[in-house]
Amino acid sequence: LSGEVRGVEHDHTGRMAALRGALAARGADAFLVAHLPNIFYLCGFAGSAGVLLVTAGEADFFTDARYAIEAPAIVRAARVHIARKGVVAELAARLRRRKQCVAFESAHTIVEQQAQIARAAGRGVRWLPTSGLVEDLRIVKDVAELAVIRAAGDIAVDVFDEVVHLVRPGMRESDLAAEIEYRMKRKGAAGPSFPTIVASGLRSALPHARASEKRLMKNELVVLDLGAILRGYSSDITRTVFVGRAPARIRGWYQAVLEAQRAARVALRAGVTAGKVDEAARRVLRKKRLDRYFVHSTGHGLGIEVHEPPRLGRGVGQKLRLGSVVTIEPGVYVEGTGGIRIEDDFLVCNGEAEILTRGVRELVEL
Ligand code: ZN
Ligand code: ZN
Asked: How many Cβ atoms from other residues are within 10 Å of residue 13's Cβ?
């Protein structure tokens, strides 16, 4: 499995070319990339500090001495500069050379830092705030990315299949979460894409509960939301199980959530709006009078970040594109009783969406 992924090479040169097209269309001479997931996408740098400057003919990546050995080995399609005098100073020295318009990522820029760079770069630079330039490219996954995302999905599903047999009354949520994250790493993941959620009993009604010291008990719902990072890409799945035999009311809710997921999956295809997919899931729950318990969006984009565009939310007019990867994760959360969520990852196609995370979606009773 990881063998298939090991040989995957990303087309950084092609991505840089696409970005240059977007830059030219905005009339900018250069683009300053500050958001680390965007830097990873464009040049493969996976560390925690650095900025990338892209012009029509060149790309320069500035980082500090901690990455002096690693950066030149992993960065593609850009020249690496180890900034001994500080990233801001060396970047500014580069920008001062000529009068130019430099676009920057306003959604990912710290005001203080940008002011510092602008001061150091001087008056010859005109700054152009932009948003979503690289994210718009990232929204459509290429073959190499899909191979990695698929493998990350396999890890999540395999881990769930293993740990579901460990679930028993008396076990702490945090112990189950630890088992999940340990097994992901043993399967080649760099780690979890987010802190693993294990939420049992009344806590399962909290959509974003983290695993706690609480022990699992008989006759409780348990929501497990987990994802693995593999070679910089994330997966994200949720399964809900019942410890014991589920009462009819709980089974009814579970079937409704499963049906909502199915309806959204049928609606999901290239060209439809994100809001329409959300509405398909919501409509099913509305018919069963459960829609008021569905308190979040139906899904989100998935890739280098575990939450990225497009968002499958109520009324979102953005049209879905061929090659996007999204989650579909309807849920119901009833205070005082518990919650149910079912989440899988899908590839947006021209016809029916392809499911990237196989596995059993029927209610598992333990
Ligand atoms: Zn999730
Ligand atoms: Zn999710």
From this structure: 13
Ligand whose nearest atom lies closest to the CA of 325: 2
| Pair 165, 239: CB distance under 8 Å | no
What's the 3-state SS for 129-143?
Answer: EECCHHHHHHCCCCH
Number of the ligand closest to the Cα of 225: 1
Q: What is the pLDDT of residues 163-174, one digit of tens each?
A: 999 999 999 999
Place 278 in a pLDDT band, splitting at 50, 70 and 90.
Answer: very high
Count CA within 13 A, CB hemisphere, residue 245.
1
Neighbours of ion ligand 2 (CB under 5 A): 236, 327
pTM of full prediction above 0.85: yes
Quick check: 201 and 220 in contact, CB under 8 A? yes
CA distance 99 to 138: 30
Cα 237 to middle of ligand 2, angstroms: 7
d(CA 203, CA 338): 7
Mean pLDDT computed over 315-319: 98
Report CA(14)–ligand 1 centroid distance (Å).
31
**pLDDT score at 3:** 56
List phi, psi (to 5°) of 241: -120, 165
